[in-house]
Amino acid sequence: MPTYETVFVNRGEAPAEKIQETTAKIQKMIQEKGEILISESLGRKKLCYEIRGCHDGNYSRIVFSAETGFIKDLDSALRVNEDILRHIIVRTHEAKSRFAGYADDEKGMVKKELPVAEKEPEKKEE
Fold this sequence. Notes:
Elements: E1 3-11, H1 16-33, E2 34-51, E3 54-66, H2 70-80, E4 84-91, H3 94-98, E5 102-105, E6 108-111
Antiparallel strand pairs: 1-3, 1-4, 2-3, 5-6
C-alpha cells in the first residue's frame, strides 16, 4: 500500500480535549482502511495569515499507509470538519526510507547492521 502524510491545523483557541477528540476521529478513520505509521502533535504555532478569524493553530501530523481510493474519503472528512482550518494530504516515500536500516525493539527504533556487499576480485589482463 502507498504511504501518505497528512498535516492538519486545528483552531488555536480550541481546548486540548477537543483537539485530541478530532485527532482520534481521524486516526480511527485511517485505521479502518489502513495502518498508522507515525502520529504526532506539532504544537501550537502562529499562522502566516488569519484563517476564519484565527491567528494561530494547533498542528498535527499523521503518516499512514492506505489504498489510493481512501484518500478522497479522508479529504472529504477533513474538509467538512469545522474544527480543522487547513489540511493537506501528500503521497510520500519518506516514511519507508526514513526507517530503512532500523529495527524496532523494546527501546524504540535502533540502527541495525546492514550486510556489506562483497567486491568481486579485479581480473588482471594478460
